[in-house]
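Minutes, methods subgroup
Present: GH (chair), OT, SY

1. OT presented the first of two proteins processed in the latest run. Sequence and structure tokens recorded below as shown on screen.
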Amino acid sequence: MTSEIRRIFAEEPEAFDPRKYLIPAREKVKMTVQHKIRDVFGSSNKA
């Protein structure tokens, strides 16, 4: 999440509205968790 916020601030330093940087940051966290479940832990579709 932090790396995504830093990337956005580097590309758009005027982006001070939290909606501008938190929405993509949350999406990055979601993608990271999905990757960990699916590829790292091998837990995809298992109960």
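2. SY then presented the second protein from the same run.
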Amino acid sequence: MSYTIQYLQSEMAAQGFEVSVLVSCLVQDAIRLGASDLHIEPWENSIAARARVNGVLTEVAHLPLELMDKISMRFKVMANLVTYQAGMPQDGTAVGSPELEGVQLRVSIFPTTRGEKIVVRLFDPRDRRFDLGTLGFEESTLHGMLKTLKRTSGLLLFTGPTGSGKTSTMYSALCYIMQRDGTSVSISTVEDPVEFNLPMVSQTQINPAQEFTYAVALKSIMRQDPQVIMVGEIRDPETAAIAVQAGLTGHLVLSTIHCGVSAGAFTRLINMNIEAFMLASSILGVMGLRMVRRICPNCAEPYMPSPSQLKVVPESLVAQAQFRRGVGCDQCNQSGYAGRLPVSEMLVVDEPFREAVLKKMPTSALEDIAIQQGMRTLWQNGLSRALSGQTSLEETIRVLAADMM
């Protein structure tokens, strides 16, 4: 039973209810589940508290609707927000307290027709090891990435949806460079927001309200003599142009960009009016990222997927496949999964690929050339995870349906 439900059953029945304790119970439940986010949302007949565990929302508790204003007020106090203001979005942070096990909170409050919806991002410093070797990447991806990080200039881009591990991967890459080069390297970042403080790194958080944007910050950072620059996201043509120019002028630049597949980053940047010859000269590689849930080792068992699911698996691979699934147990909260695994594709830019970029070939053609040059796709690596029993075939299809080749 969750801490929240236990508290409601005991304290509210005894008329000893305190909203501060209830909010702590909600956050503690999310921490216990290993959640990345906590959603508290007024529904028609109740307040739904749900935690995003391994990328999937899971119900924690349903609370009486009349508590919504008190819960919202408490989170505003914790995050130093304007308590008397409602009907406007607010964002803030709350430092980790002993009762919340030091977990830091990023609080977002957003008005809805039924009241304020609260989403809390949880950052557990105990669960953050920025080590490329322990992130679980495929061997081909890790080899390509380490090869790229040896370069002293150019762009390394990361693509993927929210929660796919882009920031953790970039932080791990920065830590790898620090461990390799020590105090001889100067590293600067521009982020929105700064999620974790890294040693020996100058980290900056943008503030659009004061016109301190990615582009403005990047222009100034170029005068700070950095060798490695991390840009949280390339969102607009101006930021893209400065990042590409930095990569061409002796800086190693790491950043993210939103597009479907790795090869799509080039088309996206061309649409931002970046010249193809500059992209061909500056981009070293693009890593596509997804996350799949890992089978719970405590309740894993062999199984055979349904015929409709097996249609996506080449017949030659079915015979030697070791399909597994979790049946659910107390250790995995009856979900059958425990933790997550990365699925990636590493597009390393070589001479044939550069020539294709210069010709402004469409994304599908660029992807075909990358595969011919040895790139393993998201779908190939995801299917390999399912065939080896690390995740289920259903999970692979759920996450990578759009990336099937």
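Chair's summary of item 2: The domain at 3-126 is CATH 3.30.450.90 (Beta-Lactamase).
Next meeting: continue with the remaining queue.
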